[in-house]
Amino acid sequence: MTSTVAAPARPVLRVRGLSWAVGGAHIVSDVGFDVAEGEFVAVIGPNGAGKTSLFNLISGLTRPTGGTIELDGLDITHAPPHRRARQGLGRTFQSSSVFPALTVAENVRLAAAAHRGTCLRIWRRAESDRAAWLATAEALERVGLAHRARETAGSLSHGDKRKLEIAILLATDPRLILLDEPMAGVGVADVPALTEVIRSVHREQGRTVLMVEHHMDVLLGLADRVAVMHHGSLLALDAPDAVMADPVVQEAYLGEAL
Ligand SMILES: Nc1ncnc2c1ncn2[C@@H]1O[C@H](COP(=O)(O)OP(=O)(O)OP(=O)(O)O)[C@@H](O)[C@H]1O
């Protein structure tokens, strides 16, 4: 049976029957859900449940063995990652992915410029350079790193590198942001500030977010709905309170903190 949850009015992301099997192992099985415009959906699940694999399928790093993925009504199931990025899908990874030798601003500007493309006409190029710098300044302001723009990215704390990764995404003006465990490796003291950045990206900028995160305390107050993955399947998708109270979810987490 396909695990499909009722469709919100205007989905930015629509996933149907999504499956990925490798070497006979069903890593992601028949997953179906929608993410509505401006919605924040968190993905949780025990270790090895298939959360990152689901993100790899949605962002195009892995080819599904079944099912479909639509972004803004466009079928992107077989589109390569760079085309998905152009169509508005931005993603961060569990491990940090900034250029440590470049400055904080250069890291963001590279993404902003790449997103806008290079124009050979000199006056147009000046215009797009200016737009890239503006997008860079705005993104750094949003994540609270404007004052560190000229420092090398390698000198940032892990928490600030996470903020920089979010700024890099924002500079490409994504329709949908996929955050894969943004708190992974971040010191306890940095968690509230990073949570606040994510909240502002969602609430103040109105961006649509899909985020894998292990810790329910981070999700509460951020997520509109929580999707629970277990053994590659979508076990539940509901409001955070309802998910936490769901005995089936509690059973899946037996022996682990929810
Ligand atoms: N390329 C691959 N080949 C074979 N098995 C894989 C591959 N990638 C992932 N797996 C397996 O698929 C399962 C799901 O992995 P995945 O990383 O998606 O889980 P996860 O929910 O993100 O886990 P975690 O919370 O530990 O990051 C695991 O058992 C993993 O070993």
From TrEMBL:
It comes from the Bacteria. Pfam families: ABC_tran, BCA_ABC_TP_C. Keywords: ATP-binding, Nucleotide-binding, Transport. The keyword Cell cycle does not apply. SUPFAM superfamilies: P-loop containing nucleoside triphosphate hydrolases. InterPro entries: AAA+_ATPase, ABC_AA/LPS_Transport, ABC_transporter-like_ATP-bd, ABC_transporter-like_CS, BCA_ABC_TP_C, P-loop_NTPase. The keyword Transport applies. Residues 13-256 form the ABC transporter domain. GO terms for molecular function: ATP binding. PANTHER family: ABC TRANSPORTER ATP-BINDING PROTEIN, CONSERVED COMPONENT OF ABC TRANSPORTER FOR NATURAL AMINO ACIDS-RELATED. This is ABC transporter ATP-binding protein.
